[in-house]
Amino acid sequence: MSFSERLRELDGHAQAELVRTGELSQGDLLRAAIERVERLDGALGSVAITSFDRALAQADEPDGLRPEERGPLHGVPFLLKDLGPTVAGLEATMGSRFLKGFVPAQGSELTDRFEAAGLRVLGKARTAEFGVLPTTENTAQGATVNPWDHTRSAGGSSGGSAAAVAAGLVPVAHANDAGGSIRIPASNCGVFGLKPTRARTPLGPAVGDLMNGLAAEHVVSRSVRDSAAVLDAISGPAPGDPYWAPPVAAGTFTRAVAVGPGRRLRIAFSTRAGSGGHLDPACEAAVREAAALCAELGHEVVEAEPAVAFTDLVEPFLVLWAAGVSSAISSYALLSGRTPEPGQFEELTWELYEQGRSLSAAGYLLAVSTLQRAARGLAGFYEDEGRGPGSRRGHDVLLGPVTSEPAPPLGTFSVGTPRQQLTRAVEFCHETPLANLTGQPAMSVPLHWTEAGLPVGVHATGRFGDEATLFALAAQLEQARPWAHRLPGPGHPRMETRSC
């Protein structure tokens, strides 16, 4: 096995440790990752834009830090999703023909925080066009395939990031999530993905709020500890942010991973069908196995579900979705000096753009208030009620499916009219967007694999502001059922170079 191949199996902490001990240099790590991208990504289609020279130049620059002052991921190769945060001077397309060749002059606060943590941006990962669909098959760059089965979707909209991490090109990659776009590709590709609490991470300086708080920024990763370390590095408000998440009770997310829950958690699980009325047996099995594992770990596990369901909130969610897509396109039109035209976009994206432009202010605010009311109703499922006789203990975590089925075949979401495509996408997303509507933290944990070798994540939602409990539970599950050693190999599609 080559040096570069051995690194595929290591998470970011382990790779950074090789640099700290002097076994490798930052340049060695980056050049090995670049070799993997050049050799393997032709089969995956996960990388949209490269910035290899910039990353290598950063690695060669003296940072003035002593080894003990560097973070746990210092020098680790990293991909930025080609949607949202920007790098000054690096092309940003949002997965769309409309922005091909657009080079922003300004970077983002989030990018600065990633790089301050020592992560080295090798380039940008592919995304669904403007993050619209739960698959990454944009017409501007082509499809990102699932590393475990090249005929299937890697998920979306952070499919490029998840596929690159699953295939071992990089150990951690940026992802964002307004309706499941961290958790769905994490589930499809067999990696760990946590969506933080609303406003845990900054969106500025260009944006203070996206889709009334639906969107959250973080990463997908091979290990729980990498995810926790990144969130420690990037969380907290930036000057001028309109609101921010509550402080972390555990001190740091890294500490939560290290010490575990420290108590017996009350964990609910549910396998109810989503808006499509269907749940694949593999997805149900994943939830039930995870619930059994949590019971084995000593937690109290009950079968229960909140009264609030995403099924009842699809229409107001789609109002915010259309408004967000329309606003994003309009914003980039101003930044780029370009005029949106139908032929520059996929059909569904353009329909959402026009729908968003036609919304009334009253209709938008009615949707917002409906979703806020639902969030208040859902909060009670996680909170204690009363004391003494007749009191009820709230649930710490809710387990459920990430999606209604394992990774679907490529092309699944391009069939039919735009409205039919959107309906199919909503059915696939199951209850996952509910955590975006309420602002709660939620994660996909790669615990289950089908007989055909496809990963199936388990969804876990925590109470608002309590990512620490999710990280602590995820670390327990990871120790009990490790997954980071899994890589596409014998019995799976070969990682040979081909065009996508």
Helix/strand layout:
Layout: H1 3-8, H2 12-20, H3 26-44, E1 47-50, H4 52-60, E2 77-81, H5 109-116, E3 120-125, E4 137-138, E5 142-143, E6 145-146, E7 149-153, H6 159-166, E8 172-177, H7 183-189, E9 192-195, E10 216-221, H8 224-234, H9 253-259, E11 266-269, H10 281-296, E12 300-303, H11 314-336, H12 347-358, H13 361-379, E13 397-401, H14 418-429, H15 434-438, E14 442-449, E15 455-462, H16 467-480
Parallel strand pairs: 2-3, 2-8, 11-12, 11-13
Antiparallel strand pairs: 1-3, 4-5, 6-7, 8-10, 9-10, 9-14, 13-15, 14-15
Helix pairs in contact: 3-4, 6-7, 8-9, 9-16, 11-12, 11-13, 12-14
Provide structural commentary.
This protein has helices spanning 3-8, 12-20, 26-44, 52-60, 109-116, 159-166, 183-189, 224-234, 253-259, 281-296, 314-336, 347-358, 361-379, 418-429, 434-438, 467-480; strands spanning 47-50, 77-81, 120-125, 137-138, 142-143, 145-146, 149-153, 172-177, 192-195, 216-221, 266-269, 300-303, 397-401, 442-449, 455-462. The strands form three sheets. The chain has an eleven-stranded mixed sheet with strand order 1-3-2-8-10-9-14-15-13-11-12, with helices on both faces. The chain is globular and about 55 Å long. The longest helix is centred in the middle third of the chain and has 23 residues, at 314-336. Strand 6 and strand 7 form a beta hairpin. The protein is built from 16 helices and 15 strands. With 500 residues, it is an alpha/beta fold. Helix content is 37%, strand content 14%.
